[in-house]
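From the methods appendix. Each design record in this collection lists the tokenized structure first, followed by the designed amino acid sequence. Records were kept in a plain field format so they could be parsed without special tools. The example shown here is representative of the layout used throughout.

RECORD:
FOLD TOKENS (113 positions):
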């Protein structure tokens, strides 16, 4: 699991298309709010890399992606060509956008209410 809370973290992402998508989202947030991207204000990103990333709790949080999907506690699930994006709200202004490659999401058969 890769956690992206700063642009410098993008270099840790193995799938370049996902890194590019996160960078683009950061650009959009900066333009929308006319300020530099800050994870605690604009939300942050998680990239799942292995099956355990779906079922183990997120770092520093008490829940997993599978739990949130199976209980329907997500804002949205969007299918992209090579991955799924799942947005989970943490509080009134902070959320996480989770990227799950198809190779992980599809075989695990997560509930996408």
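DESIGN:
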């Amino acid at each position: 699991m890769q956690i992206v809370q700063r642009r410098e973290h993008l270099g840790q992402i193995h799938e370049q298309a996902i890194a590019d998508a996160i960078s683009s989202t950061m650009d959009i947030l900066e333009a929308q709010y006319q300020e530099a991207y800050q994870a605690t204000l604009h939300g942050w990103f998680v990239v799942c890399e292995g099956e355990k990333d779906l079922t183990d709790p997120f770092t520093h949080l008490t829940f997993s992606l599978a739990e949130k999907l199976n209980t329907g506690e997500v804002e949205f699930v969007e299918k992209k060509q090579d991955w799924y994006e799942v947005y989970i709200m943490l509080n009134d202004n902070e959320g996480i956008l989770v990227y799950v490659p198809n190779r992980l999401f599809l075989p695990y058969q997560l509930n996408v209410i």
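APPENDIX NOTE: The two ends are 23 Å apart (CA to CA).
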